C-alpha cells in the first residue's frame, strides 16, 4: 500500500492506492477518495473529485472532454493511473455507437447472378463495417436500362439511401446508370472489368465466333487419337472442354443477337450504341472509381477458360492454366529444335504444327477481343476498361482475367484500397 | 523469381506446420527473399504500415498484433487485441518502447519488446483510418469525427482533444498525423458534398502540448485531399495529394506551400520517403518519382506498370509495392525487375518495414523478409 498526498493547483491530488492483482486483472483502490465520496452522499457531482492538477494542466478542450465523462482509459499496468481510482471503479461509460455501416450493393454482369460476388463479399465482410448488403440477381440478359431500373427498384425497396455500388463487367454500366438516375440511392460507384466503351467481342456474329472456336480446337486437336496422347492433345482437349464451353457460354448465350443486352455492349467506336453514348455523356456527381485489370496477354484465352470454371489460384484456375499452356508451348518448341538437330522430320513437323496451332489460338483470341489494343482482360479490351471521368482508376497489371476478377485476391486488394481511400468505409 | 524447388520445399514445410520457412532465393533484382512466415487467411492481407522496434517488424495479423524478427522471421510475440474481427489498424506507431495501433474500436498500447498490452483508449469515433503518430510523451490519433487526440503514452489518458473541422457540413476524417518537436501535424480530408465527389485536403499544425492551432493549410480547389501522414524533414512538410494528383511541400513553420509536383495521374497513397536531399514517391498513376527536396524538381520518373501503394529505400534500391515488388535503382530510376511471391501465388499488401539492408512486408498469405544488396 502506498500513500501519497500532494497539493497542486489548489486541489488535493490524492494517491492513496492499493492495487489488487488477480492474475493479469487489477484495479486501483483509492481509500481517501472513497471516504470523500461517502461524505458527499451524492450532494456533489463526482467530477469535482477528479485530480484538479490534471485538469488545471490542460486547456479548454480537455475540460470539455472531462465534463463529458471519463475518457475510456483502461489500465493494465502499474504506471497507469486512471482518474478517480475509487474502491470499486465506476462502471465504464457506454462506448460511443459504432459508425454506421456503409450500405453496399454488389451488381453482377451479363448472364451473372448474386453468386458472382459471393467470394468477394465473404472476403470483404470481415474487413469492413457494412450496413445493408445487397447481392441482387437481376434479369441476366435484359437490356442495361431495364436492369438498371430493376437495380433502382431493388435499392429503393430497402428504404435506405447512400449505397456504394460495386459492379463487375456490365454490372458496372448498370450501376452507373442507376446512380445517374437516382444519385441519392447509390452515392458511389466502383466499376471493374467494365466495358465503358463497349466490348470488341460483341461485334462478332455468333456463327463467326462459333466457327473460330471450332477451328481453334480442331487445329490444336488435329491428329490426336486421344486427349492423353501427348501434351498438345491434352491442351487441345482442355481448350475444348474449358475454353470452348466457357466461350460458348458467352458466344451462344451472350454474344448472340437473341440476347438483348448485347446491343448495349457494342463498341462505340464501331457501332451505334445509344446506351453507352448517353451513359458516358451524362453528368455524374457521385464518387467514381474504376479498376482495370490487365493480365499477361499471352495465353489469356487459357486464363479466361480456367477462371471461368475455377477460382484463379486453384489448380485448374486461370493462373495455372495459362502457366501450363506456357510450359507446353516451351516443350513443343524444344521438341522442334531437338527434332531438327537429330533430323527427325516427322517429329519436327508434328511439334511445329502444335506450336503453330497454339499461336493460332492465342492470336485469334487477341484478334477477337482486343485487336490493336496492347491490353485486355481476356474479354474487354484495355482502353474500354478505363472509366471515363472517374475520380480514380486503379491498374492491376498481371492480374486475373475477366471471369476471374470478382473472385481474385488481387481485385480484393484494390477494392479494399478504394474502400479506404475513396469511400472511407468504416472498419468493423 | 523464387526458384521452384525452394518454393515447393517451403510450402511443404509450411504444410507440415513449420511457422517460418527460409527461402534465401535470389530474385534477379539484387533482392533476396530470406524468409516467409505463412499466415492464416484471417490473419493475412494487412494493408497498413508496420512499425519497427529493436530489429523486429510489428504489424497486424488479423485481430492481433505480432512482431517478427526482421532477419530470421522468428515470431517474437503475438498479442490478440480483438476476437473474431481484424484489428483494422492503418499503421503501428512505435516510440519509447511502446507500440500503438488504432483499431476499429479502440486505440491500443503495447509493450514493444514483449507485446504486453498496456492500455486501451476509446475515442469518440473510429480512428482506424488514421495513420497515427507517437513520441515518448503521447500517441496522436485522429477520428472519423475529425477529432485529434493526444493520449498519454504512460497512462492512456487523453491529454487534449480538438476538432479540426467543427464547421464541416459533410463527412470528414483525419487521415494521418506526424509529430516533430513541439508540433503535431494533422492531415485531414473534408468532403464538400454528400456524395463525396468534391473534397479538400487540410494540414493543420497543432501545439503538441495543448492542441492549440498554430496554422492551417487548405489545399486549393475542390478536387484534392491529403490522405496520409505527412513527412517532416528540415523546414519542410511533405504530403501526398491523392485526388489532386500531387506531392506538395509546405513550409512547416508557416504553412505556406513551397512547391507542388504534379504526378501523371492520381497521386500517391502515402507521403514520400527521404534520403539526403531527395524524396522518393510512388503514385497510383503507375509511376515512381525522385524529387529534389529543396526545389521540387523531378530527378527521374520510372514506370512500375501498376498502381503503387508504398515505397521504401533499401541500400541502393528503391522498392515499390504494386502487389508485386518493383525494384528501381535509387540513383537513376532504372527498373531492375520485379519480385513476386513464390509461384506468384499471393500478393504483397502492406507498406514496407526497413531495418538496415533488410525489408519486411505483409502479404495476402504470409509475412515476407527480404535482404537488399548493400
Characterization of the model:
The complex is a heterodimer of chains A (428) and B (374). With 428 residues, chain A is α/β, with parallel strands linked by helices. Helices cover 41% and strands 15% of the residues of chain A. Chain A has 14 helices and ten strands. Chain A has a six-stranded parallel sheet with strand order 6-5-7-8-9-10, sandwiched between helices. In chain A, strands 1-2-3 form a three-stranded antiparallel sheet. In chain A, a hairpin with a 2-residue loop joins strand 1 (2-8) and strand 2. In chain A, helix 8 (231-251) packs across helix 10 and helix 10 packs antiparallel against helix 11. The radius of gyration of chain A is 32 Å and the shape is elongated. The two termini of chain A are 41 Å apart. Chain B is mostly beta strands. Chain B contains one helix and 33 strands. In chain B, strands 1-2-33-32-31 form a five-stranded antiparallel sheet, with helices on one face. Chain B has a four-stranded antiparallel sheet with strand order 3-4-5-6, with no helix packed on it. The longest helix of chain B is centred in the first third of the chain and has 12 residues, at 4-15. The two termini of chain B are 20 Å apart. The model of chain B has no long low-confidence stretch (mean pLDDT 93). Classes of the chains: A alpha/beta (428), B mainly beta (374). At the A-B interface, helix 3, strand 4, strand 10 and helix 14 of A face strand 10 and strand 14 of B. Strand 4 (74-75) of chain A pairs antiparallel with strand 10 of chain B.
The helix fraction of chain B, in percent, is under 10%
Number of helices of chain B: 1
Average pLDDT of chain A works out at: 76
Counting DSSP H or I runs of 4 or more residues, the number of helices of chain A is 14
Sequence of strands across the biggest β-sheet of chain B: 1-2-33-32-31
One letter per element, helices H and strands E, the order of chain A comes to EEEHHHEEHEHEHEHHHEHHHHEH
- Radius of gyration of chain B over all CA atoms, rounded: 20 Å
Q: Largest sheet of chain A, if any?
A: 6 strands, parallel
Can you list the strand order of the major beta sheet of chain A? 6-5-7-8-9-10
Strand content of chain B: over 45%
Coarse structural class of chain A: alpha/beta
Biggest sheet overview of chain B = 5 strands, antiparallel
Number of strands of chain B: 33
Computed Rg of chain A: 32 Å
- Shape of chain A from CA axes? elongated
Q: Please tell me what the overall shape of chain B is.
A: globular
Amino acid at each position: 500500500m502506498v500513500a501519497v498526498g500532494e497539493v497542486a493547483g489548489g486541489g488535493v491530488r490524492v494517491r492513496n492506492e492499493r492495487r489488487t492483482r488477480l492474475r493479469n486483472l487489477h484495479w486501483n483502490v483509492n481509500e481517501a477518495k472513497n471516504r470523500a465520496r461517502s461524505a458527499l452522499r451524492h450532494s456533489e457531482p463526482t467530477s469535482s473529485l477528479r485530480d484538479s492538477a490534471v485538469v488545471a494542466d490542460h486547456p479548454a478542450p480537455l475540460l470539455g472532454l472531462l465534463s463529458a465523462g471519463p475518457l475510456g482509459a483502461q489500465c493494465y499496468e502499474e504506471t497507469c493511473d486512471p482518474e478517480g481510482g475509487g474502491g470499486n471503479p465506476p462502471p465504464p461509460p457506454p462506448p460511443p455507437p459504432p459508425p454506421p455501416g456503409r450500405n453496399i450493393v454488389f451488381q453482377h454482369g451479363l448472364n451473372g447472378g448474386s453468386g458472382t460476388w459471393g467470394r468477394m463479399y465473404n472476403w470483404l465482410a470481415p474487413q469492413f463495417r457494412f450496413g445493408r448488403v445487397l447481392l441482387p440477381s437481376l434479369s441476366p440478359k435484359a437490356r442495361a436500362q431495364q436492369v438498371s431500373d430493376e437495380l433502382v427498384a431493388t435499392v429503393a425497396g430497402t428504404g435506405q439511401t447512400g449505397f456504394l455500388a460495386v459492379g463487375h463487367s456490365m454490372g458496372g454500366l448498370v450501376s452507373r446508370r442507376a446512380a445517374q438516375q437516382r444519385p441519392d440511392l447509390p452515392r458511389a460507384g466502383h466499376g471493374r472489368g467494365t466495358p465503358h466503351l463497349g466490348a470488341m467481342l460483341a461485334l462478332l456474329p455468333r456463327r463467326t465466333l462459333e466457327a473460330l472456336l471450332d477451328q481453334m480446337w480442331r487445329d490444336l486437336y488435329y491428329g490426336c487419337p486421344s486427349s492423353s496422347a501427348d501434351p498438345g492433345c491434352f491442351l487441345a482437349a482442355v481448350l475444348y472442354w474449358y475454353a470452348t464451353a466457357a466461350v460458348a457460354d458467352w458466344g451462344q448465350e451472350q454474344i448472340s443477337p437473341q440476347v438483348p443486352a448485347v446491343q448495349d455492349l457494342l463498341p462505340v467506336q464501331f457501332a451505334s450504341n445509344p446506351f453507352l453514348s448517353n451513359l458516358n455523356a451524362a453528368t455524374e456527381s457521385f464518387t467514381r472509381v474504376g479498376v482495370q485489370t490487365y493480365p499477361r496477354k499471352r495465353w489469356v484465352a487459357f486464363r479466361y477458360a480456367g477462371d471461368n470454371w475455377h477460382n484463379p489460384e486453384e489448380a485448374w484456375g486461370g493462373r495455372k492454366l495459362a502457366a501450363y499452356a506456357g510450359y507446353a508451348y516451351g516443350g513443343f518448341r524444344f521438341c522442334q529444335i531437338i527434332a531438327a538437330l537429330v533430323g527427325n522430320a516427322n517429329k519436327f513437323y508434328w511439334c511445329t504444327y502444335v506450336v503453330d496451332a497454339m499461336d493460332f489460338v492465342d492470336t485469334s483470341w487477341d484478334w477477337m477481343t482486343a485487336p490493336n489494343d496492347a491490353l485486355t482482360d481476356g474479354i474487354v479490351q484495355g482502353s474500354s476498361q478505363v472509366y471515363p471521368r472517374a475520380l480514380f482508376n486503379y491498374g492491376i497489371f498481371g492480374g486475373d482475367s475477366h471471369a476471374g476478377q470478382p473472385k481474385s485476391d488481387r481485385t480484393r486488394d484494390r477494392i479494399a484500397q478504394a474502400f479506404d481511400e475513396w469511400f472511407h468505409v468504416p472498419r468493423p | 523469381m523464387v526458384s521452384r524447388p525452394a518454393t515447393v520445399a517451403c510450402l511443404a514445410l509450411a504444410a507440415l506446420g513449420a511457422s517460418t520457412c527460409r527461402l534465401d532465393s535470389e530474385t534477379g533484382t539484387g533482392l533476396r527473399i530470406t524468409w516467409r512466415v505463412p499466415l492464416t487467411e484471417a490473419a493475412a492481407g494487412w494493408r497498413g504500415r508496420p512499425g519497427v522496434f529493436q530489429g523486429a517488424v510489428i504489424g497486424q495479423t488479423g485481430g492481433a498484433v505480432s512482431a517478427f524478427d526482421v532477419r530470421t522471421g522468428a515470431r517474437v510475440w503475438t498479442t490478440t487485441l480483438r476476437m473474431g474481427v481484424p484489428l483494422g489498424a492503418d499503421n503501428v506507431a512505435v516510440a519509447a518502447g511502446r507500440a500503438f495501433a488504432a483499431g476499429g474500436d479502440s486505440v491500443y498500447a503495447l509493450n514493444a519488446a514483449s507485446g504486453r498490452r498496456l492500455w486501451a483508449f476509446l475515442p469518440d469515433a473510429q480512428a482506424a483510418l488514421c495513420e497515427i503518430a507517437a513520441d515518448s510523451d503521447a500517441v496522436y490519433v485522429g477520428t472519423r469525427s475529425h477529432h485529434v487526440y493526444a493520449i498519454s503514452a504512460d497512462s492512456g489518458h487523453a491529454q487534449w482533444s480538438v476538432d479540426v473541422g467543427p464547421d464541416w457540413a459533410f463527412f470528414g476524417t483525419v487521415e494521418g498525423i506526424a509529430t516533430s518537436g513541439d508540433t503535431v501535424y494533422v492531415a485531414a480530408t473534408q468532403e464538400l458534398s454528400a456524395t463525396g465527389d468534391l473534397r479538400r485536403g487540410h494540414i493543420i499544425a497543432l501545439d503538441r502540448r495543448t492542441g492549440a492551432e498554430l496554422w492551417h493549410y487548405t489545399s486549393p480547389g475542390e478536387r484534392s485531399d491529403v490522405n496520409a501522414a505527412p513527412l517532416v524533414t528540415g523546414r519542410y512538410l511533405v504530403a501526398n495529394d491523392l485526388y489532386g494528383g500531387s506531392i506538395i511541400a509546405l513550409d512547416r513553420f508557416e504553412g505556406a506551400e513551397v512547391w507542388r509536383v504534379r504526378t501523371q495521374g492520381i497521386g500517391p497513397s502515402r507521403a514520400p520517403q527521404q534520403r539526403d536531399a531527395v524524396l522518393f514517391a510512388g503514385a497510383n498513376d503507375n509511376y515512381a518519382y525522385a524529387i529534389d527536396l529543396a526545389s521540387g524538381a523531378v530527378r527521374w520518373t520510372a514506370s512500375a506498370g501498376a498502381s503503387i501503394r508504398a515505397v521504401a529505400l533499401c541500400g541502393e534500391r528503391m522498392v515499390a509495392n504494386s502487389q508485386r515488388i518493383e525494384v528501381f535503382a535509387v540513383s537513376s530510376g532504372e527498373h531492375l525487375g520485379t519480385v513476386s511471391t513464390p509461384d506468384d501465388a499471393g500478393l504483397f499488401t502492406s507498406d514496407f518495414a526497413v531495418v538496415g539492408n533488410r525489408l519486411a512486408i505483409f502479404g495476402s498469405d504470409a509475412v515476407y523478409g527480404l535482404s537488399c544488396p548493400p
